[in-house]
Every structure is written in C-alpha cells, then in structure tokens.
Amino acid sequence: MKLSLVAVSIASLSALSVACGNDDDGKLRRPPAPADLATAQPPPAAPPPRTMVTGNALPTSPVNLIADPGFGLVGAGQQAGFGSFLAFDDSFTQLTLTTTVESRSPAGFGGAVAHVLADGATDRASTPIMVLTSFQGGAGPFHAKVWVSRSTVAGAPATLTIGAKGMRASITDETPDGEAFDLTPVESATRVSGGRTWTLLRAEITKGLGYGGFFVVHTGTGGGQFLIAAPEIVAQPLVDGLVSTHSTPAFVRTRSKTDAERTAILRYRSQRQQLVPAR
What we know:
Blueprint: H1 2-20, H2 35-38, E1 86-89, E2 94-95, E3 98-100, E4 113-116, E5 129-135, E6 142-151, E7 157-158, E8 167-173, E9 179-182, E10 184-185, E11 191-193, E12 196-205, E13 213-219, E14 225-235, H3 236-239, E15 254-256, H4 259-270
Antiparallel strand pairs: 1-2, 1-5, 3-4, 4-14, 5-13, 6-7, 6-12, 6-14, 8-9, 8-13, 9-15, 10-12, 11-12
C-alpha cells in the first residue's frame, strides 16, 4: 500500500514537471498566463430595442381613385400602362422613375416609394421634374393627400421645403386648360422614421370632377432627390361606405393651370396606352 502511494506521488510530480517545465538551471518554471485573460475585452453592447411598425396590405385607402399608388407599374417598358405614373423634365422629355420598398415609409409594407432624381442633380441644384398620373372622377367632394420627403444625391435624409425649390403637389381637372388645386402641408402630421422626415400634403376639393383629372407632383430646383409615397385621391361618396376617422379639412384655393402642367397633361394623354400583365 505504501509503495502504491509513493508511485502515485512520483507520477504526479512528473506530470507537474512536464506541465510547468524547468529552466536550464533546473528551477521550476510557471506556465504563462493565458493570452485571452491578459487581454480580456469588454462584452459587446446590447443591440438597440426593436421598434414595432404597422403593416398595411395596401399603401392607401381601398377606394383610392389612383390606379397605382404603390408604383407597381413603374419600370422600363411599363410606364405607358393605364393609370401609371409618368415623369417629365422641364423640356418634357420622359424620364424613368425608380422605386424602393421601405417598411418605415408611410406606404408601409403595402407599396413602394418613388424616387425622383434629375440628371446631373447636385445636393444644391436640380432640374424641375413633374410626376403625374390620371384618375377617374365623379361628383365629389374629393380628398387628396401624398407623403413627400427629400434626400441628398447619395441618399441620405435631407431637409425638405415646400415650394419652387422643394416639392409641390396639385390636383387638376381632366382638361389641359382647366383648374388646378394645390395640396398644403399638414404640420401636425409630420412623420420621422429612421432619421427621415416625411411631410404630408393634403387638400379637400369640394367641386365635382366628372371627367376625372390628374394627380401632379412637382419637384423643384433645390437639389438632391425627392421621394413620393402613398399618393391618394378619394371621393366622399366612396369614403362614406368605409369606417374612417374624422380629420379637419385642409382649405384649398382654385388657380389656373401653369403652362408646364398643360404641356405635361397633353404629353400624358398622347401616350399610347398598353395593357400591363398582372404580377
């Protein structure tokens, strides 16, 4: 029994000697400290909390008179489809719009956001562009609205002004020489999401538009690129059949169409309409 204990002790000392090692002079050498303990890093920061967003099956009201509020018809070879949005520069050359899907936009999950970027635009100057679509009319009154925002040319959120340097939106009747109604910003409805500010433009049109009209968005000369989301125009008789919340009407003044609006409407109406296959 004593012999076994001595053997175990010798074996333990041998293992310790192998693990620790000896210097050349025979002295016991301690093992080095693990590198990960000597250079320990602090734990990673906790990820930011998730933010819940509201998802909608449609970008706008189901009784929206605009056929393509989610910009699903925008794209090469499809911009002449009935009810699609067309874009023209100040020489009335037709441009191609681009779109992105952004769940944090006012369109939510239900539609895309249209990006309007003029050729050669900088962050301080750009060529004006007009984006428009036709809609069917009725007896009215009508409620119109659209969400707009602005980015730098590179895509970073930027401050938006409403006017000739920024953006404007209008409703016109169907004829090139008829009346136009400008949408006005609703300050209390401004939405900030992901560092981007969205401005709501709205108007209430009391007169009828028996032959339909045009929904027009003007971008200005202030530079950058402009974003359009969830354009909508609905007739009150159709809204009466839906459950809705009450909102304060935005007063609107009637004005004559500008020369640019008249020309853009004529260009839009001259497009040869084509059927677009459903996706």
